[in-house]
Amino acid sequence: MSEKDIKDIEPSIAKVTEHTKKITIPKMNSWMMISIVLIVILIGSFIYFGTRTTTTSTGLKPEDASVKAVKFVNDNLVQPGTTASYVSTTEFEGLYNVTVSYQGRDVSVYITKDGTNMFLSAPLDITKNLPTAEEQPEQQPTETPKTDKPTVQLYVMAFCPYGIQAESAMKPVVDLLGSKADIKVHFIANVGGTTPDSVQSLHGAPEAQEDLRQVCIMKYYDQKTYWNYLTSINANCSGSYSNNATYDPCWRNAATKSGIDVSKINTCSIGSEGVNLLKADDELSASNGVSGSPTLIINGIVYSGGRTPEAYKTSICNAFTTIPTECSQQLSTTGAAASGGCG
User: Fold this and answer.
1) 52 domain residue, yes or no
2) Does residue 8 sit within a domain?
3) Is residue 90 domain-resident?
4) Beta strand 118-119 with 182-187: parallel, antiparallel or unpaired?
5) Considering the entire predicted model, what is its pTM?
6) To bridge 157 with a disulfide, which of 81, 173, 288, 293 should be the other Cys (CB 3.0-4.6 Å)?
7) CB atoms within 10 A of CB 10
8) Residue 279: Cβ within 10 Å count
9) How far apart are CA 196 and CA 208, in angstroms?
10) CATH number, domain containing residue 111
């Protein structure tokens, strides 16, 4: 090739070289490479975990959850020789609300959709504050008859959380008024015979046993001793009532610390003596038409106000013919509105 030919094709080579430079992919720096890798990993993670969540969050079908709930109730919560039967299932706040019929009453239990946990009363939404007594709409009070020594009957189920709430609110009133008012706890239970296994209570055999213990304590010990025991088990033991290995030593310890003879109370509660005492409560609650825990009756009138120490004190003090000086003392207004119950 001559020098002239070379000179003739040089412009063409220059044009091709210039065009090649225009389409050359720029070299990526390390940060660009890392960003691309991270994006790929992130997309993969969304795909994996999204698929995983979809397949595991569905839980049990309503019918399967219902079968599991009814089986647990019959295996663990009802009295020997009795059974609860299935009624219906609905959804409630991300749970299954399973209704069963037991001893002529419909009872609701709540089971998680994965079938691993059960609640015996409607769970509370802890993202919201409970309504306080002050937020309740004002109700027209029913006139309570006045007596020299008001009769105050607090009906509960031993392990009903609302009943425990009412007992906690009543304790300062008991401490304040002492024997000037006849304040007693009574239990809502069905006593069908003369032996402890004939006692039926909403929260099962453990609750029936605790009812029997408490009526025996009230028979043999004074008011202060009983309320000390009650306060202790409510604070330390009630949450584990379904686990006898935990609850049994807990109630015994509470009794001992309160100065109660554990052997004496145990003998009373497992025999006919305790059953007869509880049967009296059964008959009293039936005669007053009481079925829900808590129910407070003051001089024969059902109370419907807030569940605070001050609200309880005010209503009881208003039932005195002559109001004692203790009633001038202000108690706590902190508590719950008169809503929620068991039964």
Assistant:
1) no
2) no
3) yes
4) unpaired
5) 0.63
6) 293
7) 10
8) 20
9) 8
10) 3.10.450
Task: Give the residue carrying structure tokens 């300062």.
Answer: 172
The answer to whether 211 touches 277, Cβ cutoff 8 Å, is: no
| Containing structural domain, residue 247 | 133-328
The neighbour count for residue 114, using CB atoms within 10 Å, is: 12
> Residue 143 falls within a domain, yes or no?
yes
Q: Low-confidence residues of the chain, pLDDT below 50?
A: 2, 4, 6-7, 9, 12-28, 30-31, 34-35, 37-57, 136-140
Same domain, 271 and 312: yes
- Gyration radius of the chain over CA positions: 34
Share of the chain above pLDDT 70, in %: 73
Say yes or no: 261 and 283 in one domain.
Answer: yes
Q: How are strands ordered across the β-sheet holding 105-112?
A: 85-92, 95-102, 105-112, 118-119
pLDDT of residue 343: 76
Burial 249-269 (b: 16+ CB within 10 A, else e): ebbbebbeebebeeeebbebb
